[in-house]
Specification:
Mean pLDDT: 92
Helix content: 40-55%
CATH superfamily of the largest domain: Dehydroquinate synthase-like - alpha domain
CATH architecture of the largest domain: Up-down Bundle
Number of domains: 2
Strand content: 15-25%
CATH class of the largest domain: Mainly Alpha
Structural class: alpha/beta
Number of helices: 13
Low-confidence stretches: none
Shape: globular
Radius of gyration: 20 Å
Strand order of the largest sheet: 1-2-9-6-5-3-4
């Protein structure tokens, strides 16, 4: 088992990567803590509900909602939890966000552990201390900064995932490679077929490399005042198209990465040769991109949603651009300029 520790202004957190049974033994009190999961995860792993104190959330698009948070608060009250209590969230990114938010706000904050069961949650959503809820069609507009006491990452969970979920997670891994590690980028290029075949040895290497990148960035900037903004590469546009078209998160991020790469070239940040390398990989790795087009009405709706993006500041928006493979930076763009660039590219 591998153990990663990271610290920031929010506190300290541990990530255990390995067999879940070994992870539980690292924090004995976790064995008796109440657990919140989804009905789908509970059906795949019924032992999660073998405890007396368990709650399975119905699977729906409204998991990250205020109504669901109220349900968790009532669950906590029924169990008579206090400020010394510990709760566990086991599931994908939505469950991790929901449990993290509820725990960080109940009684002004109780401890929580996350057990991410999707690749996307293992490499991104369950790590770094950001919790979030959606408000209607606006993604992640409500949230807190709160580190889990620990995160248990068992790569074997990916064996039950469909390929679409694998691609959701690999889109985030690709983002991490683009902003911080050309070595990881070339490793992904070389091993993509093995990743899609769920080769656990290769997958664990990718998970650990991705976690090292994210925790390094979070340790420097926990509250997204500077360097952590780099983790938004491709996401400004991805969030808008994900909600509008109902795309999978990985599909939306891949599309966002394509546009961010092209915009980086247009603004003189990225060399065309390196851009071609990035784009060639994205189109091979995410083949749906080859035939993806937006109708004019969809494009206008998506551009309109940028007004509600949490990265917007008045008439400008913090947008992440690539400098070179493995290096990125944030630039504040006028919303009007970003809309024009996206409109021209689409």
């Amino acid at each position: 088992m591998k153990k990663l520790l990271y610290s920031c202004v929010l506190g300290s957190s541990a990530i255990y990567v390995g067999e879940l049974a070994s992870c539980w033994r690292e924090i004995p009190e976790a064995m008796e803590a109440p657990i919140i999961t989804s009905q789908q995860v509970a059906s795949l792993y019924p032992w999660l509900l073998a405890r007396k104190k368990a709650l399975a959330i119905p699977d729906s698009a409204e998991v990250k909602s205020l109504d669901r948070v109220k349900e968790l608060y009532q669950f906590f009250l029924d169990l008579k939890l206090d400020r010394s209590s510990l709760v566990i969230g086991a599931g994908g990114g939505a469950i991790c966000d929901l449990v993290g938010f509820a725990a960080s706000t109940f009684l002004r904050g109780i401890a929580f552990i996350l057990v991410p069961t999707t690749l996307l949650a293992q490499v991104d959503a369950a790590v770094g201390g950001k919790t979030a809820l959606d408000l209607g069609l606006i993604k992640n507009v409500i949230g807190t900064f709160a580190l889990p006491q620990a995160t248990f990452v068992d790569p074997k969970f990916i064996l039950t995932l469909p390929e679409a979920e694998i691609l959701n997670g690999l889109a985030e891994v690709t983002k991490h490679a683009l902003i911080a590690s050309s070595d990881l980028f070339f490793f992904l290029q070389e091993n993509w077929p093995r990743l899609l075949r769920r080769d656990l040895e290769i997958m664990e290497k990718v998970i650990v490399a991705s976690l090292q990148i994210k925790t390094s960035i979070v340790s420097q900037d926990a509250c997204e005042a500077g360097r952590r903004r780099l983790l938004n590469l491709g996401h400004t546009l991805a969030h808008a198209v994900e909600k509008e078209l109902g795309l999978g998160h990985g599909q939306a991020v891949a599309w966002g990465l394509v546009l961010a790469t092209k915009i980086s070239v247009l603004l003189g940040y990225l060399d065309q040769v390196e851009a071609n390398l990035v784009l060639s990989f994205l189109f091979r790795a995410f083949p749906f991109l080859l035939g993806f087009e937006l109708a004019p009405s969809q494009l206008e709706t998506i551009l309109g949603r940028l007004e509600a993006d949490k990265k917007r500041q008045a008439t400008e928006i913090n947008f992440v651009l690539l400098r070179r493979l493995g290096q990125a930076e944030t630039r504040r763009l006028p919303l009007s300029e970003l809309k024009r660039l996206v409109h021209d590219l689409c």
